[in-house]
Amino acid sequence: MTPxxxxxxxxxxxxxxxxxxxxxxxxxxxxxTAIGITGNTGAVDPEPFVELPGVFECVRVTKPYKxxxxxxxxxxxxxxxDDAEIGGAEPAIIAGVCAxxxxxxxMLTAQVVAEAGCKWxxxxxxxxxTSPYAFQGLHEEGLKILAEVRxxxxxxxxxxxxxxxxLDLCEKYADVIQIGTRNMQNFSLLKRAGQARKPILxxxxxxxxxxxxxxxxxxxxxxxxxxxxxxxxxxxxxxNHSRFTPDLAVIPAAQKLSHLPIILxxxxxxxTRETVIPMSRAGIAxxxxxxxxxxxxxxERALCDGPQALLFxxxxxxxxxVRAIAAIVHGVRS
Amino acid sequence: MTPxxxxxxxxxxxxxxxxxxxxxxxxxxxxxTAIGITGNTGAVDPEPFVELPGVFECVRVTKPYKxxxxxxxxxxxxxxxDDAEIGGAEPAIIAGVCAxxxxxxxMLTAQVVAEAGCKWxxxxxxxxxTSPYAFQGLHEEGLKILAEVRxxxxxxxxxxxxxxxxLDLCEKYADVIQIGTRNMQNFSLLKRAGQARKPILxxxxxxxxxxxxxxxxxxxxxxxxxxxxxxxxxxxxxxNHSRFTPDLAVIPAAQKLSHLPIILxxxxxxxTRETVIPMSRAGIAxxxxxxxxxxxxxxERALCDGPQALLFxxxxxxxxxVRAIAAIVHGVRS
Amino acid sequence: MTPxxxxxxxxxxxxxxxxxxxxxxxxxxxxxTAIGITGNTGAVDPEPFVELPGVFECVRVTKPYKxxxxxxxxxxxxxxxDDAEIGGAEPAIIAGVCAxxxxxxxMLTAQVVAEAGCKWxxxxxxxxxTSPYAFQGLHEEGLKILAEVRxxxxxxxxxxxxxxxxLDLCEKYADVIQIGTRNMQNFSLLKRAGQARKPILxxxxxxxxxxxxxxxxxxxxxxxxxxxxxxxxxxxxxxNHSRFTPDLAVIPAAQKLSHLPIILxxxxxxxTRETVIPMSRAGIAxxxxxxxxxxxxxxERALCDGPQALLFxxxxxxxxxVRAIAAIVHGVRS
Amino acid sequence: MTPxxxxxxxxxxxxxxxxxxxxxxxxxxxxxTAIGITGNTGAVDPEPFVELPGVFECVRVTKPYKxxxxxxxxxxxxxxxDDAEIGGAEPAIIAGVCAxxxxxxxMLTAQVVAEAGCKWxxxxxxxxxTSPYAFQGLHEEGLKILAEVRxxxxxxxxxxxxxxxxLDLCEKYADVIQIGTRNMQNFSLLKRAGQARKPILxxxxxxxxxxxxxxxxxxxxxxxxxxxxxxxxxxxxxxNHSRFTPDLAVIPAAQKLSHLPIILxxxxxxxTRETVIPMSRAGIAxxxxxxxxxxxxxxERALCDGPQALLFxxxxxxxxxVRAIAAIVHGVRS
Lengths: 334, 334, 334, 334
Description:
By secondary structure, the first copy, chain A, is α/β, with parallel strands linked by helices. Chain A is built from 11 helices and 12 strands. Chain A has 2 domains: about 5-50, no CATH class; about 80-334, Aldolase class I (TIM Barrel, Alpha-Beta Barrel). In chain A, helix 6 (about 185-195) packs across helix 7 (about 210-220).
């Protein structure tokens, strides 16, 4: 649409799309609204659209993904809840506990996160664990603790849904719903996430290509939820000096192809506390829109992934360093 | 349990396990029944069990998986439905269509599979597809066609469930329920599969370690379903001469650690028809308990994975060759 | 050239190629001789050749490799020394010691290899070791022991050259010169191998693509040595159940693109003795032209790679099994 | 040795080591000299050393590498030629042409590198190419151009040696000798590099583990050359959005285990110009001691790896950004 297209213009295009049995996906950008079309089996004839008021151009997207791509929407997508942003000028530091283990552990951590000036809090209430005998999270009780974090500190809550019932609950209690790496191609869950009215933080599968990653986001968007945050969390490789291999090259590559913001998880991708700070710096330096990072008041007692959790002092140091680097990168990018 | 333990002896052990708040997993083998115990958080005291009638020995399993392993149950598990077996002396050739596309395509293929003397038929009614815009299967309509295959040709039906509702339907119509590679760590689905009363064919994740693979099977078994068939389907690697890298070394490695049968999917692991026959031979030669293979009457028109489907003549040739090789391997193994 | 082209016809074409400053590579096949041309920077004008007596056709090879490919020479290359063949109907079993450690160890092993009816013996006198402090081989003394194996048992000797001086010595003492996986892209060594007048057994780099592998063979052939045997020895992957991941899919893929024979090393690719027999069967079943396999009289005392060496009885069992499988595969392929 | 050990003390220890048939490796650090011992087959008895004047302690190194590790020498190694340093406070930016193609291309680039305040120049005269038919470098003629770069601009020259004769020439003309990724386990070349009296820049093999990488450096050091610079250049993975996957996690991991400096090659690891700047920033942010980066005056005409070469303006931008980031990281690290 043209920058000056009215809401009526947009609705008219949507109605026209729907009148021929297709689905319209209006996505507002900084300057103009893009309207994606899906549901077609072949090329869509641009004729009915091209002369409607407010239509700027009709672009045929030849890539396998449609709504995710820059071809359709060039402006970068910014996820915004109140004054908290992901994809904006400041790096979004989403910090917190890997798993909500107790009220005390969670609130202690949240206080440190808030005092560091961060606006997002992560915490898992449903934990996908490799072993059926490992701690699987506090479930709804955990979500209630997270809601208390928001009420107390104003932090926006990011938490993982591992299946449809969990997603129902997360949608009720949280601000952003995470889909984990092992569910990146759980297509039923992706479709359900596409029906949620909250942003989705989608972690890359541990051996997924960039195209598969973008198509997973497309699953969410094709259902009408355009608020998707991509998250690189390390790929599986032969090396044993880190738990996974953080693939920083995917970040500029994704930003070139897609308008969605992309962040880095330096904690799960490396698996060791001492590497998290340098990798956080690297993530912001390479241009990531934010970080998803584990912090713990006493990681030696953590029920899940303790060795990768930052201590409070390390966390504060990290925040300072990445902000300084972001200022350099942002100077560069704007 | 001792070979001559009675059903009453077994029930007495189970009752004792449950009386201390744990879960008992009785698994009959060729000679004796093993009873796994889960639900404990530390070591279980063998005292209450060791002198019960029919108890042969109490073994503490120190591996992360309990029920899957040879430590608990040394005898190989054989999946048996009527006269069809997986894990027995003959290779189980599970052949059929990647996706059920039509009644004609499916029945034509089933006839060829049956005439070749095979006892298992595969066909997908729910297809997990990388793109949201690709053909996703005929759903219940497809399952009905598969049920007709069973009624007409006596073939046992193997079909994939991609989520809980699909699993409910597959349980109703099929004989074996497949969990696909992208869902190998969809733990909610694994738990649901563990409550099914039909065998589960579990495909290895495309970058999962053997331990992760066995722990995924453990999820199913921990819920009480001990009928699990493992399936190697190729791992992700840097090569581009095949779609995935079939990891044949995992087959003897899995057989050493686990009593569960393991088969090979030569179709999805290679992605090209001409490689399927040699890879099928290799799979049986390395000791796989069977094959999961795509066949199609006119693959150039297939809606899914046509390039890897065998033509009918190729399929018949493959069956002949792998049977001859199985005779050599079986001579060796028994 | 046509099947009835005379030696004079061939020489006339070679002379014509050389007269325009290019290099001619005559390669006899079962039915006809192919003459490759290298040294050109653009397309070669077929005009001077097309009407020469005995010329069948002029084919422009558009692949990055010229001499290695089936485009130039369709007939499979068979490496033949006396009655020993690699690439012929029978599988070539190249068995022996990983490292020549002593006269006794080598001769004991050679006797078993010869008695099993095998025609090739492997043994390393120059060992490329990851650590500078590990046993690096007996060097010329080892080569002399290998020469004695040939004199005593009539076995053809395959041994590895790790640099130019070692290659000079290997050329003097051995029948086939091996270039190891870590030297697959040691281009200077490849060029030197191309000047040797003995066949080259080229191991695939542990993370090389098929194209890189074929181009490494092209380096050898471009220097005039057309006797190259390819060898798959496992690729690096994330798994830890075997030392490397044997990539059996590369064998039919290489055979489709190239006329060179290709064998499998089941010992280095798996790293554990008990997997070597099943992997040997799989290699022959997938269509490999032979095996390169480690045997040791007392592997617990081996100075190099003991855990992967077959015991004598296991070796004899393996030979029997792979011959039976080869008969099935060969029936199929011919 | 103690900080106040005299040269005579050091020589006395060396003489004692040699008197029992072992090899001594004196390595001066910022505060004290470490003396490594190799050549032993079992544990070395500390008795003869422990009471010699100037001996601080005898440490038994149990890792597979001895001289490379922090156990032996805790102080970081700084490579220093005149006022140019690698491993010091400032990031070492080693920039230049992938291949020396002409006098003009090289001198133009060198001028830009020098004007940006960089002190090191890279340029290849011997190019290891995947295809035997690709441009392989200008050889000695190229080295002479590089020597002119040094004479004109005072830049220190880094250039690759692909075999022993090339190394002889590089030692004559250059300041630092590079061993490429494909030769990381060319052990004969590593030994020859260990006899060179110039620093060695050792690139990590494209699928080598950190331990293999350090052991390759150990090969060089075991021969007496302790001036080694490690270089991460990307590992092979399944992804196709970058040519290789830059493994930034290996940088802090190597720095923890080894006293050697480690730099990043953002050009070969990504393969695309537009990713080189963000990856350079990330490399310095993660703590790398420098960068090895391709620049070209007209990359569309480059004979080798043009798509990854920075244009002059991009290079200047990159230098500015990484210096700003280094200031932040260095603040942190010191």
